[in-house]
Amino acid sequence: MAVAPDNAILWPVDDPQLEWGACPDFFPEGCELAVLQGDPEENNSDIFFKVPPNSELPPHYHTSAERMALVSGNLQLTFAGQDLMEIEPGNYIYGPAELAHEGFCAPGDPCVLFIAFELPIDAIPVEQLEQT
To answer: Model's pTM, two decimal places?
Structure first.
């Protein structure tokens, strides 16, 4: 578990010292996350979130807002009541707190997202997205 250091830090996504752990059970097999900074049970922590290619992210939401940037792969995200977003590496995505969303990591490279959470990290499954 990473904590806020006294010095600046750098984490390459392929750093062998990153400690990858399992995602919540309702995410696809092979999904992993690595804590980059902070304590996931406290406010203001950052993670890498990795999803295997050709995998679906089921509908879910987070208590916290998410500030995300896609590091690798090609990701499709749909937030409740909004159009599908086609996300490429280098794109920034903001996900409001408690707004349900689902996704798909396209075939090819794994999808790796950098995610900054304001509140403790959680992921709450929902049956389906609200359509407007």
So the answer is: 0.91
